[in-house]
């Protein structure tokens, strides 16, 4: 859970200057949702790569 918060914070900080505060929140939410879906998809199809993705974050 904490790694997702860190990912959201990083995405928000990178996008807030270009998209504004509300756009940054929407972008951060999309990044977190996309990452979770990607992590689950990779974990199901390629367990070794899914483990490495979990370890990297």
Strand share of the residues?
under 5%
Count of individual beta strands: 0
Determine the mean pLDDT. 89
Largest sheet features: none
Number of domains: 1
Radius of gyration: 13 Å
Helix content: over 70%
Q: Give the overall shape.
A: elongated
Structural class: mainly alpha
The number of distinct helices, counting runs of at least 4 residues, comes to 2
Give the CA-CA distance, first to last residue.
Answer: 11 Å
Q: How would you spell out the order of helices and strands?
A: HH
Poorly predicted regions are: none
Can you describe this structure?
With 57 residues, the chain is mainly alpha-helical. It has one domain (2-56). The chain is 95% helix and 0% strand. The longest helix has 44 residues, at 2-45. The N and C termini lie close together (11 Å).
Short structural summary:
By secondary structure, this protein is mainly alpha-helical. Helices cover 95% and strands 0% of the residues.
How would you describe this structure in keywords?
2 helices, single chain, mainly alpha, 57 residues
Topology:
Blueprint: H1 2-45, H2 47-56
Helix pairs in contact: 1-2
């Amino acid at each position: 859970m904490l790694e997702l918060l860190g990912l959201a914070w990083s995405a928000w900080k990178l996008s807030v200057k270009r998209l504004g505060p509300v756009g940054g929140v929407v972008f951060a939410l999309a990044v977190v949702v996309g990452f979770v879906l990607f992590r689950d998809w990779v974990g199901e199809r390629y367990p070794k790569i899914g483990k490495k993705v979990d370890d990297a974050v």
